[in-house]
Amino acid sequence: MKNKKSRLALGLGIVGISGALALSLVIKKELAERKAEKIKATLRQFFDQLGEIAVLYVNETESDTQVTRGGVVMTDGRVYQFSYEKGQIAYEEEKV
């Protein structure tokens, strides 16, 4: 009988740990999405000073957890490439 109880307790423990890990992954993903949205809002506010934005995009293949890279296309046809790191925005206009 003790053997069955210890196996049950072990099984419940494993289920509990698995649930906690899954929850932590969901929370981590949600925090990353919120951070990305704040960065996009900051970028929109910054580039709005240069004119009306047609498209703002983030290049996921060049970005990482420290630096966000992407571009902005303005309604007048100007195109800017940017990098955002720790609140600092560096940008360059593309010459066609």
User: Which sheet architecture does the biggest sheet show?
Assistant: 4 strands, antiparallel
CATH topology name: Nuclear Transport Factor 2, Chain: A
Q: Architecture, CATH level 2?
A: Roll
Q: What do the pLDDT scores average to?
A: 86
Question: What is the straight-line distance between the termini?
Answer: 79 Å
**Order of strands side by side in the largest beta sheet?**
1-2-3-4
Total tally of structural domains: 1
Helices, by number, come to 1
Give the helix level as a range of percent.
40-55%
Spell out the CATH superfamily: Uncharacterised protein PF15513, DUF4651
Gross morphology: rod-shaped
**Percentage of residues in DSSP E strands:** 25-35%
Q: Could you characterize the architecture of this molecule?
A:
This protein is α+β, with helices and mostly antiparallel strands. The chain has a single domain, classed as Roll (Nuclear Transport Factor 2, Chain: A). Helix content is 49%, strand content 28%. It is built from one helix and four strands, in the order H-E-E-E-E. Strands 1-2-3-4 form a four-stranded antiparallel β-sheet, covered by helices on one side. Strand 2 (67-74) and strand 3 form a beta hairpin. The longest helix is centred in the N-terminal third of the chain and has 47 residues, at 2-48. The model has no long low-confidence stretch (mean pLDDT 86).
